[in-house]
């Protein structure tokens, strides 16, 4: 029997596969497409996702393939400078095409021993008290202890589970594609700048050799978004908004997406969980979709591994939904608000000007940037110190960086007092070190970098170790 089957080989599924393999969990990833997609949907990683890659020792690979940009202009395209002193060691956005993100995450999962099987579509699923049976189109059945659906907004796993996906249908479709254009680059950039003064959902981004990434609102909402648009639709809409079609031709790929907003009624049913777009979809304003999925996987991975490996405390796996579903709810509100501000109608434009003025206040600008970049996320882990529930930024220790101690996917105790984690040494990295940036006696972080304890009392620490990392065996005393 396989430990975990992941349905969907996109960034969420691949990130989850790596997290599970770090903890020795057997993983099979089933991806229905026979080849990795060649089109680019997401264009970058926000601060929290950059931190995630740093925590797992992957950031250098991503930095080598991407470009760093200032953190600003992401809320409804309102161009404001980044707030000063953002609480992170990575105050930038990493521009990197999703095709490269997918490749790097696939390479990492393979290095760790995940089994990625392409061309494997899931058509059936049933579960019992011992495991889950997955059916493929040829009648093959695979058996696993757990299944996670990371198979996108049209998730087959979610539908087979019968989990509702309520929300708002799409009200506006956007055409997206890559194609060549005969117009001179200077002409394209001049016209695009003029159109974007009022229509932020419009753009032609040069990719080199006369090829552009084209984004333009569609004329109508498609009844079947799985049917790709044709080049004439792009030409028609480009002329409608810009007065020219720029001589576009020879498309590499064409697609469409909508602004539907939906949230799964629950994230888990028995032994089957949902993550990424299978659990939530929203308009792309602010570029949060891929990032939200990666962060879902980062939250779920160590918890599911704890369950598989037998040390997960009661209720730990339930915290995946209680922590991540409220985050998705908040994220879904964000692009809704941005969508209103992107309207060209007089009323929304007045509100947009007002919001722009408010963003000149440092606290307002910081609040919105922290929401979009996800560094303000705080889980409910109990009352007490202001750091509880928050992720901790990378801090300098005397012997290196904190995030360097998190590459193996274990919890971390940074101890400046002389405590003990005997009995949990297989789950916790005990760092006896000092940091001028950390004004606490000791701090306990989960494998996903969120703080669950601050203090200096051993008995209190032991209680939190049991709560988050399970009990130790009788033969392995605490002290």
Automatic annotation (TrEMBL):
GO molecular function, one term: FAD binding
One Pfam family from the record: Rng_hyd_C
Transmembrane stretches, start-end: none
Protein name per Swiss-Prot or TrEMBL: 2-polyprenyl-6-methoxyphenol hydroxylase-like FAD-dependent oxidoreductase
SUPFAM superfamilies hit by this protein: FAD/NAD(P)-binding domain
Keywords: FAD, Flavoprotein
Cofactor(s) needed for function: FAD
Organism domain of life: Bacteria
InterPro entries per the UniProt record, alphabetical: FAD-bd, FAD/NAD-bd_sf, RIFMO-like
Domain (FAD-binding) ranges: 2-334
Organism: Hoyosella altamirensis
């Amino acid at each position: 029997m396989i430990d975990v089957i992941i349905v969907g080989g996109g960034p969420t599924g691949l990130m989850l596969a790596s997290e599970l393999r770090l903890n020795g969990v057997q993983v099979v990833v089933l991806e229905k497409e026979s080849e990795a997609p060649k089109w680019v949907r997401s264009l970058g990683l926000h601060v929290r996702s950059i931190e995630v890659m740093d925590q797992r020792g992957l950031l250098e690979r991503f930095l080598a393939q991407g470009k760093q940009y200032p953190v600003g202009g992401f809320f409804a395209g309102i161009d404001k400078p980044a707030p000063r002193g953002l609480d992170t060691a990575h105050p930038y956005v990493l521009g990197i095409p999703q095709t490269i993100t997918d490749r790097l995450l696939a390479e990492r999962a393979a290095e760790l021993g995940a089994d990625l099987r392409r061309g494997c579509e899931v058509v059936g699923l049933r579960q019992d008290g011992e495991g889950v049976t997955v059916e493929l189109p040829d009648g093959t059945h695979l058996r696993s202890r757990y299944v996670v659906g990371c198979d996108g907004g049209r998730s087959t796993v979610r539908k087979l589970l019968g989990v509702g996906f309520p929300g708002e249908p799409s009200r506006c479709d956007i055409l997206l594609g890559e194609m060549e254009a005969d117009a001179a680059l200077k002409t394209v950039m001049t016209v695009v700048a003029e159109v974007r003064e009022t229509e932020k959902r419009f753009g032609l981004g040069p990719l080199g050799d006369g090829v552009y990434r084209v984004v333009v609102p569609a004329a109508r909402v498609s009844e079947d978004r799985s049917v790709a648009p044709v080049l004439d639709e792009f030409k028609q809409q480009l002329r409608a908004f810009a007065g020219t079609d720029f001589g576009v031709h020879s498309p590499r790929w064409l697609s469409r997406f909508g602004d539907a907003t939906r949230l799964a009624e629950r994230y888990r049913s028995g032994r089957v969980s949902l993550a990424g777009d299978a659990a939530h979809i929203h308009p792309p304003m602010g570029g949060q979709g891929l990032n939200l999925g990666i962060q879902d996987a980062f939250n779920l991975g160590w918890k599911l591994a704890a369950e598989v490996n037998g040390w997960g405390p009661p209720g730990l796996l339930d915290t995946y939904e209680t922590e991540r579903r409220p985050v998705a709810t908040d994220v879904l509100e964000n692009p809704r608000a941005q969508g209103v501000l992107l309207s060209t109608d007089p009323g929304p434009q007045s509100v947009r000007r007002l919001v722009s003025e408010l963003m000149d206040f440092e606290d307002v600008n910081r609040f919105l940037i922290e929401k979009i970049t996800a560094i303000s996320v705080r889980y409910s882990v109990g009352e007490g110190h202001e750091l509880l529930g928050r992720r901790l930024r990378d801090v300098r220790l005397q012997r290196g960086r904190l995030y360097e101690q998190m590459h193996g996917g274990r919890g971390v105790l940074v101890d400046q007092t002389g405590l003990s984690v005997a009995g949990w040494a297989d789950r916790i990295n005990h760092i006896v070190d000092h940091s001028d940036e950390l004004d606490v006696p000791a701090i306990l972080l989960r494998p996903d970098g969120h703080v669950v304890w601050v203090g200096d009392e051993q008995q209190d620490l032991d209680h939190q170790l049991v709560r988050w990392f399970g009990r130790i065996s009788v033969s392995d005393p605490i002290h």
